[in-house]
Amino acid sequence: MASLDQSRNLVTEIPGPASLELNKRRSAAVSSSVGVTLPVFVARAGGGVIEDVDGNRLIDLGSGIAVTTIGNSSPAVVDAVRRQVAEFTHTCFMVTPYESYVAVAEELNRITPGDGEKRSVLFNSGAEAVENAVKVARSYTRKSAVVAFDHAYHGRTNMAMALTAKSMPYKSGFGPFAPEIYRAPLSYPYRDGLIDKELATDGEKAAARAISVMDKQVGVRNLAAVIIEPIQGEGGFIVPAEGFLPTLVEWCRENDVVFIADEVQTGFARTGAMFACEHEGPNGLEPDVIVTAKGIADGLPLSAITGRAEIMDAAHTGGLGGTFGGNPVACAAALATIATIESEGLVQRAAQLEPLLTEPLLRLQASDDRIGDVRGRGAMIAIELVKSGTVDPDPELTTKLATAAHAAGVIVLTCGMFGNIIRLLPPLTITDELLTEGVEVLTGLLAEL
Question: How far is CA 228 from CA 161, 179, 200, 288, 447, in A?
Fold first, then answer.
């Protein structure tokens, strides 16, 4: 396939006539319960561009929700997948295993935080990995309670929905949910600072608040695991105050509680480190179990849990697995993805993209009080929008800004418990020029609105 021109180019309105025709077919054939952010149908994608069926080229600041981190259809991944498809597509690792599954596990054990002996298990989706991480923690501790945090998002399966905080659209009407799930307050520096300035900057104080809730409402004798996103994804790209996560980890270690880091959205170079846990404390954070998916295989469905060997080996033989878990084609893609991240210096690239994203937004924030907060790490940056003269969330403005950006050929995503956050997740292979243009379009539209 010829390389895709890395420029924004609109030849029709968005969506164009061919996309509108396909949307009619979608409405007639696909359940209306599946939402669509931007109803343009994709023909090709690569680098920082998505081309639709009408020939429009859009700047991609979403990466399929942090999935195509190394760029859509990365050449190394395409080659690896072609080779594997020609050999075999499936045997089920639990029936007749194959080397690529083992190789992915070895790579995950190598690159995830911590130097001790580790084990990995492969699954299909982030939600499935979250569920299995909880199973592992319960097997290891022989306890049942699990604590998740305010604003958390952990997936759409039953256990994952219970762990997720936001009702609409993820949980409403789908209960009853898995029992023995509890919630603790997160460190949310922007919102915490509106109540208590010290709480906004003192992560240890914020952690003490959460620990008090866990002690009183759950009790450590009942608590199997604490699960948390090191930077919250769907919850609003919330970066906890310094000291919050290390204090939680220390408390978990002292009380035989498994600390699970959900790095589904933050993993694989997204934040300017291979994993977001590495940003925490002087030597980084070492979770007991780490959950990964999204960016692991450049768009092929794969997820994993990796953790300390004694925890990961606690479940009985046959207790973990699944028909498609660690599919050989997805494993080939994952090996090529990890190799590409390392050989092309994409961890460093994510760090380089951070000022290109944040500096224009911070400049605008200085003159526009509707930008309440600009936050995130690496190529994972969010804008929290509020009503002028207040700190009240402004979901209406957020929707208008996202819609206007889409019409102008820039793909952005919204998120947050209050629906007032624009999140930016460009592929790490996007050019500086294209990223700068995308952010300029966004800031220009906000000034106009």
Answer: 14, 18, 18, 12, 35
Cβ of 106: how many Cβ atoms within 10 Å?
14
Q: What integer pLDDT is reported at residue 52 of this predicted model?
A: 98
Q: Is residue 6 part of a domain?
A: no
Residue 21 contacts by C-beta under 8 Å, 6 or more apart in sequence?
Answer: none
In 3D space, the residue among 274, 417, 243 whose CA is nearest the CA of residue 337 turns out to be: 274
Domain boundary (344, 366, 389) is at 344
- Tell me the Ramachandran region of residue 57: left when phi exceeds 0, alpha when psi lies from -120 to 50, beta otherwise: beta
* Whether residue 112 sits in one domain with residue 94: yes
- Say whether 82 sits in a helix, a strand or coil: helix
Examine residue 169 and say whether the peptide bond preceding it is cis (omega within 30 degrees of 0). Answer: yes
* Confidence label for 2 from pLDDT (cuts 50, 70 and 90): low
What is the sign of the dihedral through the CA atoms of 104, 304, 301 and 297? negative
Pairing of strands 289-292, 42-46: unpaired
Tell me the average pLDDT across 31-51: 96
User: CA-CA distance, 249 to 211, in Å (whole number)?
Assistant: 11
Instruction: Give the integer Cα–Cα distance in Å for 134 and 130.
Output: 6
pLDDT-above-70 percentage for the chain: 100
Q: What is the number of other CB atoms lying within 10 angstroms of the CB of residue 448?
A: 8
Please tell me the distance from the alpha carbon of residue 21 to that of residue 403, in angstroms, as a whole number.
20
Q: What is the pLDDT of residues 193-244, one digit of tens each?
A: 999 999 999 999 999 999 999 999 999 999 999 999 999 999 999 999 999 9
- What does the pLDDT read at residue 298? 97
Residues 314 and 218 in one domain: yes
Can you give the pLDDT at residue 282?
Answer: 82
Phi-psi category of 437—alpha, beta or left, where left has phi over 0 and alpha has psi -120 to 50? alpha
Question: What integer is the mean pLDDT of 325-329?
Answer: 98
Global confidence as pTM: 0.97
Domain of residue 257 covers 77-344
Task: Give how many domains the chain has, as a whole number.
Answer: 2
Under 8 Å between Cβ of 182 and 199: no
Final residue of a structural domain among 321, 344, 367: 344
| CA-angle at 96, arms to 95 and 98, nearest 5° | 135
Residues contacting residue 39 through CB under 8 Å, at least 6 positions apart: 15, 19, 20, 23, 26
Residue 94 near residue 188, CB atoms below 8 Å: no
